[in-house]
Amino acid sequence: MEIWSLPFSPSQRAKLLSAGYTYLHSFSHLSPSALAAGAQTAWDILCEDRTMNHITTSCEDLDGILGGGISCKEITEVGGVPGIGKTQLGIQLAVNVQIPVEYGGLGGKAIYVDTEGSFMVERAFQIAESCIQDIMDKVLQTDDVGVCQENLHVNAILANIFYFRICSYTEQIAVVNYLEKFISAQKDVKIIIIDSVTFHFRQDFDDLALRTRVLSALAQKMMKLAKKFNLAVVLLNQVTTKCTDGSFQLTLALGESWSHACTNRIILYWKGNERCAYLDKSPSLPLSAAPFSVTTKGIRSVASSCKRMRTT
Amino acid sequence: MAGKPISQMGLPNSIANLFQARNILTAKDALSLTEFELMELLDVAMDVVTSAISHISEIACPPCQTALSLMENHVKNDYLGGHLPTRLKGLDDALCGGIPFGALTELVGPAGIGKTQFCLKLSLLAALPTSYGGLDGCAIYIDTESKFNSRRLIEIAENSFPEIFHLKGMAQKLAGRIVVLRPTSLTEFTESLQQIKLSLLQHRVKLLLIDSMAALLSNECEWDQKASRQDSLGWHMSFLKSLSEFSRIPVVVTNQVRAQSSDYASSYPFQVHVRDQSIRNSERSESHLVGALGFNWAHAVNIRLILEAHSGITLETDNGIEVAGPDINTIRCQGMVLRIP
Fold it and tell me: Is A23 left (phi over 0), alpha (psi -120 to 50) or beta?
């Protein structure tokens, strides 16, 4: 029996034809998943998720609400007011992704796309030094100190952070398009951080509809990269105000359509004089908050009193 | 990079001609459209579009550097390792050496706290020879509130670096390296910025100071045109950043504070209890002063130094006696001796 005589809608018929099935018997024995190329059953996905990797943030409370840390294969958006610590978190993650597998990390490399010029190499050096120190402290409790010292060196960590300085939205789109080729060549890249995804899109765009289209194309490409190479994508975002019920509230920039693009969203905010992180969107974890602090060593859990006045 | 013409990118002739025919001439034009839109416009198959776009993107993309090579370049090429030491030990330690080159640093604080004094000292430090820890170059001081006082500058110089300033003609030489501009409107300021770009290389400018940014805008528009006011700074933000990064100089900007108004957005929708509290709480302590110019500007700044009258900053009188408390509003003769614990 030929396809034309079967009850398929024109578009379905066209798809079957383009896949090469002209007669009923050529596909009647195939299972649904074989026909829909690239589909997976929910059970397969569950098995995969169990082995999903997390990148620690060095703050136990924050790792706790994130289910172990920033997840690979997902896009995590981190937003907050200026000065709350978004770039600090970005740099911490770029260092933590490189923690060797034997010490609980991913042993991968990081790509840091800087659109604002906030990346300070000296700060990355400080954070990398403290990260190595923390690992050494843990290792001292066992043995293998000598081996550890050989493999971990600050310069090696800095050499594995690939830095792109972006000066316009065109370059931002170009770098996202180029990353597929770059990552295929590099191998082992496990995190991409864009700091911040908002900056160039906020000033140069008059046509908001175009902005939405371009941003969603960007988000889709990042999602493809995350899934294909099994890496984490972290997008740092800025805040803006919006008026609801007559009062002004803070919200993340780039609008409603963009807020659908990410898989997880973390909002960093001030609670009195303490910094907190709120998990605002997640497909599987409960929404909750955790305090954290920014110290000379990087992002850490809240110790005792860390009073800081701030002016936004 | 964004303006690079597609004709020079080495694409196969067939696709390059199609781009030309549809008036897509630069990388910016091509990358502003989604792949689907391009497919419609050029009437070619998706895989042709995809490969053309990835080729264009690879060329338009800026080169990659590792963080290690970034650090090595700073150490090798920049004066003093890429930082201008402020000579305030605690501050220099916190900033990994001093005010960073290639970044926008903001000084925020209430009126009278010492922002202009700080700027005067920084301009002096830029003019000093490198043997004294300076940058040995010119400083451009954009003074929008007419606060620059040469006499005060010389006073600071003579008291901070007496060994240099006693040399004949030194005061004139160093003061001659500080160029003061006084724009009275945003348009004039924009023009001055563009002129600065031209003369940057010629005159070995090592520091750009803008004191203050907020004053320009408060002259310009009404308070309720907040949206347009913030947009008008967009160009200036990008320009200042690109200027500082391109010429590897520090750019310091001062900002005013204003009291938090009742419609100031300070909380997110999930922070319900905070909002109720602030409605009930009518007292405003000093910690509720907010920087002027809004979020957009605040996000653009790379480093923010907040000057406060209490919590850790003290001033000394001539006799070396510490003055503390919120009533500090004058800084006496010694120039500036700030001790940060």
Answer: beta
